[in-house]
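User: quick one, fold this
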Amino acid sequence: QVQLVESGGGLVQAGDSLRLSCVVSGRTGSNSAMGWFRQAPGKERELVAGISRLGAIRYYADSVKGRFAISRDNDKNTVYLQMNSLKPEDTAVYYCGLAESPTAVRGPYNYWGQGTQVTVSS
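Assistant:
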């Protein structure tokens, strides 16, 4: 019943920008906190950004603070991740996630999308 679909990934050079989008379908869409995760080869999936239901609470991992910005449009059931000043270490598959509660920006997250590849070359 719940489906999350990411888009916007690509291959870019260091210093470039990308804007990821995630559309949520289902009855729980836009009713919970949402976040963006990433997973690089050989590494565990990590939370890089989260946003509460109404957008008042935001979380960013230290590695992306000042470079990434998370936002959402509940009328469109969509969450965005603006990624600026990209670095090679940002290379990963990026997934959007749906949390259990409206304000649980750091988890737990129960659903994820298929993911979109972001590759940053030096």
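User: anything notable?
Assistant: The longest strand covers residues 18-25.
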